[in-house]
Amino acid sequence: KLSTQIDKMSARSSQLKEEIVALEKALSELASSQAEMDKIRAEEKETYASNKADMEQGLNGVKLALKVLKEYYAKEDKAHAAAEGAGSSIIGLLEVVESDFTKGL
User: Fold this and answer.
1) pLDDT at 84
2) pLDDT confidence of residue 93
3) From CA 74, how far away is CA 59, in angstroms rounded?
4) Structure confidence at residue 22 (pLDDT)
5) What pLDDT was estimated at residue 75?
């Protein structure tokens, strides 16, 4: 009876050791994956930092263009009446660009 218990416990011990090996392998893979993700994140952060000034300058340019176009099409002289539809399309497009740039920052 005692030898049966010893055999059961030995089998259980072997099973647990196998599980430990599998879990350690999974942890190692997880740590490796995390390190790769951290590396990618650091690269993306560096890219963002280097592009941020250009994006802000572009956003300021878009805002200036919107201001100029809105002022132009708000004038009463209607010398631009034939192009008013195109003007509103351009303004709409620039507003979308402004929104996208703002989200990117």
Assistant:
1) 64
2) 86
3) 22
4) 97
5) 73
pTM for the full predicted model? 0.53
Q: What is the pLDDT of residue 77?
A: 66
3-class secondary structure for the chain?
A: CHHHHHHHHHHHHHHHHHHHHHHHHHHHHHHHHHHHHHHHHHHHHHHHHHHHHHHHHHHHHHHHHHHHHHHHHHCCCCCCHHHHHHHHHHHHHHHHHHHHHHHHC
Task: Take residue 71 and report the two structure tokens written for it.
Answer: 């002022």
Residues 11, 16, 21, 26, CA torsion sign: positive
Instruction: Determine the Cα–Cα distance for residues 78 and 71; give it in Å rounded to an integer.
Output: 12
Given a contact cutoff of 8 angstroms between Cβ atoms, the answer to whether 73 and 87 are in contact is: yes
CA–CA separation, 29 and 17 (whole Å)? 19
**CA–CA separation, 59 vs 65, rounded Å?**
10
The stretches in the chain having pLDDT less than 50 are: none
